[in-house]
Structure formats: C-alpha cells, structure tokens
Specification:
430 residues, alpha/beta, Rossmann fold, Ubiquitin-like (UB roll), de novo design (two linked rop proteins), 4 domains, five-stranded mixed sheet, four-stranded parallel sheet, 15 strands, 37% helix, 14% strand, binds iron/sulfur cluster
Amino acid sequence: MKMMDMTASQAQVLTAPYAGEITAQQVLDISVSFGAGADAASFTDILRDVRQRGDGVVIVNMASDDKDAPVSAFLAQTQPEKLKAAFAAVLEASGASEAYLVKTKDIDLELDGAKSVVTDRSLVLREESALCHIIKTGELRSAPLEKEFISEGMDGRPTLIADAQTLVRVYAAAGDNYRETRLMMVRVPGAMQFAEFLTGTPLSKVIEECGQKAEKSILLGGLSGLFVDKGDLDSFKVDLSGKWDFVGVYGAKDCMASLTASLADRAREETCQKCVLCREGTWHFSNIFGQVAAGKAKKEDLAMVGDIGPLIHIGAFCSFGQQMAQLFVSSVETNRDELEAHFIRKKCPAGVCAAFSKPVIDPSKCTGCTDCLDVCDEDAITGKKKFIHMIDPDMCENCGKCAEACEEGAIVPQDGTIRVPKKLVRVGKF
Ligand code: SF4
Ligand code: SF4
Ligand code: SF4
C-alpha cells in the first residue's frame, strides 16, 4: 500500500513524519471531531466526559474498515509511533482504567495498556454494541436493542471509542500547523492507492487531482457508501464521515453491473443477521444484482430495489444495514442504463460479464469434424466436413454446449484478438 504523489490540493497532515511524544494536557486542550453532519461528535468532549465520570473504558477500533479501504492497517504500518504516542496521551487524559485494541490479523501493532482483541475486518463493527459484543464474546453480532450501551457505555461505564485515523488526527492536532484532512483509498482503473485531502475539497477536484475523469458514476464510501452521479460531483465535499474512506473511479472497461453484484454478495456475507430487514434485504440484493449481471433480471427487479431499499434504510437496526440499502438504491439510480443493457439488450457494455462473451471458433484449431454443429440447438453454427466452422453471434445463446463437444478446444470466448472467416473456408486455408 502506498500514497499517491501529492499535488497542490492534497495535504500531508496525517501522513507527516513522527515528531515525538505528546502529552495528556495537549490532548485535553485541543478540539477534534469525528463524523460529519448530524453524526458529528466531538472526540474531545467525550474524552473530557470520560475523565470527569471516572472508571472509564477506551476502545481503539481498527477492525471496522471497509475491506477495500484498510485505512487502519495502512496507518498501523506507516504511523505506528504516532498511534502509540496518541493512545498513551489519550489513555492518561481519559483516566480510564481499562482499554482494548480491536484489530485484524494483518495488524501487528500493540498499544501499551490496551488488551488486544483480534477479529476479522467488518463494517458491522462500526456499530458500538457489535464492537462491545466482540470484545466480550469474540462473536460478531450487533446488539442494537440494548440501548443502554449507547447511552451508558460498555458495562454501564463511560466509554471512548476511537479509530486509527482519529488517533492520528489527535496526534496531528496536538502539534503545529494542524489542518483538517481525510485519508482515503482512491481506486482508479488499474490501481488503488491512499491519498489525503483537505476537508471541503469537492469530489470533482479529488478525481481531477488523481489524474482521472469521471466517465461513470463514482462509488463513494465502498460497501457502506453510495454511487454518485457524474453530474453531481460538486455536491460532495471531503468530510470526516466514513463515506470518505473509499473513492472508486470507473472507466469504460469497468462493468457497473458486475461491480454492484459483487458488492451485494459482500453485503450478504457481512450482515450479522440480527435483524430481519438487513438479513432478507441483503439476500434479495445479492440475488437481484446477480441476475442483472447474468442478463436474467427483469425491470420489476430493479423496481423492487427501489421499493425495499428505503424500508431497509429506515428499519435496519444499525448503520451497516441502513447504508448498504442506500448503496444499492443509488446504483439503480445512477447506473440504470448499464444495468438494463445486461438484461434488455443482453449486452455487457464494458465487455466484462462472462454471460455475454459469445464464443468463437479458432480457425487454427478447427478440424471441421461437425461435432459442434450437431449439438447446437439454436442452429447458430455453420459448417461442413473439413471446413472451418463459424458461429453466428446473433443466434448464439451462449449455452456452452459446443465448447463442451469440441475435443480440439477450438471454441473459446471472443477476446477481440481471434480473427474468423466470413464464409466457409477449407481447414488449413485461412
Ligand atoms: S442492520 Fe444488519 S448488520 Fe446491523 S444489526 Fe441489523 S442485521 Fe446486523
Ligand atoms: S467441434 Fe471443434 S473441431 Fe469440430 S467442427 Fe466444431 S469447432 Fe471445429
Ligand atoms: S454456445 Fe450454444 S448456442 Fe452458441 S453456438 Fe455454441 S451450442 Fe450454439
């Protein structure tokens, strides 16, 4: 994992070199927030509250990253001294008597004074009761109905939760020249790299600074984010919310149907299954978008996403289910033409989906045996003994029977490089 080359609009605040220890008093004197909009919370206010009430708990949460944007692992690898220094000062400033570091197997970091809990990376761990549950039982299960946790903290004790990025931000804010930035994973065609931008930078500028042009919708926030229409980029500005963990920029050769289908499969794997709307909703999304990518969906299926999405967004117990629903609704809204092309025109515009990659007969391998012609129910193959056979792509239903029948391995998906004859030609003469 590496950083993109920095340009004028980018910043090096969180990624600046380590500059020594910070003190508990410095941490108490600064003002650092996390989240944005209605979800914004003052880290510093919570810290002071934990200190005042006493017998608190500090949890460092490094396991709740999107799998495509392992920001915590990146910071643990590149900024271990800052994380240790910030944690030591935060722990002292909070006066907490207990601390935990929840992390994934790929993170080697240990924090003095914190008990390590190793688990798998999961967005569900952004939900506070799920985080608490995994510390106590090792089981990934959200318990959002236990409202007392939200209001009173773990075991009814004042609880401060910080992710890796917030800790590094605390470290930076305790030093000189602090400016608010967000570290994010930017995916562009053929590459994925971390980049750091000042808050307030418009999404259009982020894309431009990464040397890209928005050809399709932009995926903002990965599995817990949303697809942003390419005409709406200036409405989104970098902030401290989780939707800025990941920015996905896609080009002509990226298929938005197969991307959405793979996100839906991941959502189905990640749900903790505690509540019925998220459990059943992820099943439906996975099924619907799998059918879209296979060219077998119907228009009503996309309408169903629009119908159930808002219900899940309102009724799911935790932010994972709420945001995941929003993601799939936004894919239908912004990628509709490309999604529909798969099941209406039976075409993958990006040429990616295997279901639409029609077979061709490689003239250099065909022996003119007629075996393929005999098995094709669509009469899509033309040929006769000792002549190179040909497939009519407009008649072919891509059933795969001819490739199975061909002992020469001559029938393969067209990858754009295989030249085929336009009329019957004797074997060996093309
Ligand atoms: S919304 Fe999903 S992840 Fe959250 S509690 Fe319900 S089932 Fe679990
Ligand atoms: S089965 Fe294979 S070798 Fe035989 S005619 Fe068809 S493509 Fe050619
Ligand atoms: S894939 Fe099926 S429909 Fe297409 S040419 Fe082969 S046998 Fe015929």
